[in-house]
Amino acid sequence: MNNVYYGKLVFELSKPGRVGYSLPQCEVEGYALTDLPEGLRRQSATILPECDELTVVRHYTNMSNNNFGVDTGFYPLGSCTMKYNPKINEEMAALQDFNIHPAVPAEYAQGALRVYDEVQAMLSEIAGLSRFTLNPYAGAHGELTGLMVISTYHRQRGDVARTKIIVPDSAHGTNPASAAVAGFQIVQVKSTADGTVDVEDLKPLLGPDIAGMMMTNPNTLGIFETKIPEIARLVHECGGLMYYDGANLNPMLGVCRPGDMGFDVMHINLHKTFSTPHGGGGPGSGPVGVREGLEHCLPNPQVVKNEETGLYELVADEQSLGSVSGYLGNFAIIIRAFAYLLSLGKENIPLAGKLSVLNANYIKECLRSHYKLPIDGLCKHEFVFDGLKDEYAGDHHDADHVTTLDVAKRLLDYGFHAPTIYFPLLFHEAMMIEPTETESKDTLDAFIEVMKTIAEEAKADKQLLKTAPHSTPIRRLDDVKAVKEPKFTFKAL
Fold first, then answer.
1. How far is the C-alpha of 230 from the C-alpha of 227, rounded, in Å?
2. Nearest to 340 by CA among 266, 410, 438
3. Of 9, 17, 64, 447, which has the maximum CB count within 10 A?
4. Is residue 493 scored above 60 in pLDDT?
């Protein structure tokens, strides 16, 4: 590409003495930078790029054109539900009416508190639970909060012997991590050949030391866990609580409710299921819901409507687990989810789940002739291949055997984001695909055709895939070296 800005760092575009801004003189009489205490002043010059405004604008515009997101192309990232975020959500979040300081007294924030309360009520109805808190800042933060609810419940009953959480071997990595951070010991339960929890392996694990069990449904393989009522009965009989990881709630919308299955606590990822921004470190939101009888354990503050005055109040419950965030979470994210929920309405929310299931099964069935399908049958919103079939990938013992990584890299040449690879760990060449409900059949057909083309390319010319991608700004990186020898700062040659 004949572009002097293309592929360069902003430091490489820097020229000594170039300035792209001008600041007014300080209007505070008698004040100078040297008046700052010496301990607060830098002892050396700041190393910053020196560029004019046009260079900066072109640099970052070119950088943005290299970004890939759900607004630019198909993003079938399994387990992450990278669905489209309608722009009306952004418009609502940008309304000046919601631009209020988080510390404003409750009597002057009634509209915002009403939004908060109505969103939690909608989520409670969708989940089949009694009440939600929207305070947690992200999904994993919600997991931690939900586990703290379980810990608080047992501690308040004086049942301090319950120190263990059961986690399936197919669980998201955040499950055992969150449980460990919450102070629990992790007990793993195995999966059966069909990818669901092995009830017989579960039974010996249950006892007076079990605080609860975490489950995702549909599970990480996109398979519906049909034995949840039995599992919930067994866990409850031993005195534990059931925790629902809401990462895969999308296909369940309006069709099946975690609370009705027997779950006591759950978190929801607003970015996955309710179409708020996803990734990039935030801002996020991980609301936590509980069944009736556990509401007092939710974190403070809680938004409660005073039925006598009709006003919303911020209430601190003495039995609460405490506070997990400042104020009431990421409110602009809550507004986005509110807009999405109102746009769909009660009538159309079930369509999201049903269409996500339809799209996933359509791709799976169209590609099963070229890719290994380790678990047959109906999937929900996502499914997992175990790499290319041997007739396309070649002998596993050969150096040029085509791996899932090679397929993922080649997909980039065709303008598609790669699906999740090498997760879950149950399969050596795992490739998890989740199309979501927002993609058209045209997009799905184009993806299917490319996936078949890549399989045929692997059969004809394996090096074409082994050296992919070929058309991206950066070719295949040495991932191991990047981890062992990271470079975080720019040094001129």
1. 5
2. 438
3. 447
4. no
Is the pLDDT reported for residue 149 higher than 90? yes
How far apart CA 330 and CA 283 sit, in angstroms, is 7
Alpha helices in 87-138 (DSSP H): 87-93, 110-127
The string of DSSP codes covering 249-312 is -GGGTTT--HHHHT-SEEEE-HHHHS-----TT------EEE-TT-GGGSPSPEEEE-TTT--E
In angstroms, the CA 238 to CA 211 distance is 9
In CATH terms, the fold of domain 351-484 is: Aspartate Aminotransferase, domain 1 (3.90.1150)
Q: Which of 112, 146, 179, 327 is nearest to 246 (CA)?
A: 146
Does residue 394 contact residue 401 with C-beta atoms inside 8 Å?
yes
Model pLDDT for residues 208-237, shown as the tens digit of each residue: 999 999 999 999 899 999 999 999 999 999
The answer to whether residues 229 and 262 touch, using CB atoms and an 8 Å cutoff, is: yes
* Strand-pair category, 265-268 with 430-433: unpaired
With 0-12 CB in 10 A as exposed, 13-18 as middle and 19+ as buried, what is 86?
A: middle
Specify the residue for token string 């079990």.
210
Residue 65 confidence (pLDDT):
87
DSSP tally for the chain: helices H, then strands E: 15, 12
pLDDT at res. 279: 62
Secondary element (H or E) of residue 144: helix 139-156
From the number of C-beta atoms within 10 Å of its C-beta (0-12, 13-18, 19+), residue 404 rates as buried
Q: Where in the chain is the domain with CATH 3.90.1150.10?
A: 351-484
Task: Name beta bridge partners: 188.
Answer: 167
Q: pTM for the whole thing?
A: 0.91
Question: Per DSSP, what are the bridge partners of residue 164?
Answer: 185, 210
Give CA–CA dist 176/164, Å, rounded.
11
What 3-state class would DSSP assign to 51? Answer: coil
CATH fold label, 87-343: Aspartate Aminotransferase; domain 2 (3.40.640)
pLDDT of residue 399: 87
**Range list for CATH 3.40.640.10 in the chain:** 87-343
Looking at residue 67, the DSSP 8-state letter turns out to be: -
For CA atoms 315, 316, 321, 326, the dihedral sign is positive
